[in-house]
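Here is the promised in-class demo. Please do not try to memorize the tokens; focus on the logic of going from shape to residues.
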């Protein structure tokens, strides 16, 4: 089933791509800010509410790598596990399978959190920070 993108997905996608400085985390190709051919790529799909807007579940992947890994989930999982380590992968798998119900108000909160995060990391970029900038998870206090 295709999961419809919502406004929270749009701002979160911006955050992910900005946090990786518009670089594909798989092939390391660099893109111009705003590039449409660099995507926010979910390990556990957007069907899982509990990890839909979790930075640890989402990578910046170029169109080519997103297609390749989307069509080859075994490789995607192996790559992500090598990157984050088996403990974080196990925790992410459990989190992804928790049934999280979100209201419209919850989603509006998540969107506003990531709008603020986007402003924060864009400001860090404008101060000359390059490379990966960690996003604060919407549930983090
Ligand atoms: Zn790529």
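The designed amino acids, position by position:
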């Amino acid at each position: 089933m295709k999961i419809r993108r919502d406004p929270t997905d749009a701002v979160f996608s911006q955050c992910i791509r900005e946090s990786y400085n518009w670089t594909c985390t798989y092939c390391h190709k660099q893109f111009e800010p705003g590039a449409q051919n660099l995507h926010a790529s979910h390990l556990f799909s957007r069907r899982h509410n509990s990890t839909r807007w979790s930075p640890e579940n989402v990578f910046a992947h170029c169109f080519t790598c997103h297609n390749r890994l989307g069509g080859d989930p075994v490789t995607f999982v192996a790559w992500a596990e090598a990157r984050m380590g088996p403990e974080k992968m196990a925790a992410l798998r459990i989190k992804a399978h928790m049934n999280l119900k979100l209201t419209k108000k919850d989603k509006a909160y998540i969107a506003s959190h990531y709008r603020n995060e986007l402003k924060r990391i864009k400001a860090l970029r404008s101060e000359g920070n390059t490379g990966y900038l960690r996003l604060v998870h919407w549930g983090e206090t």
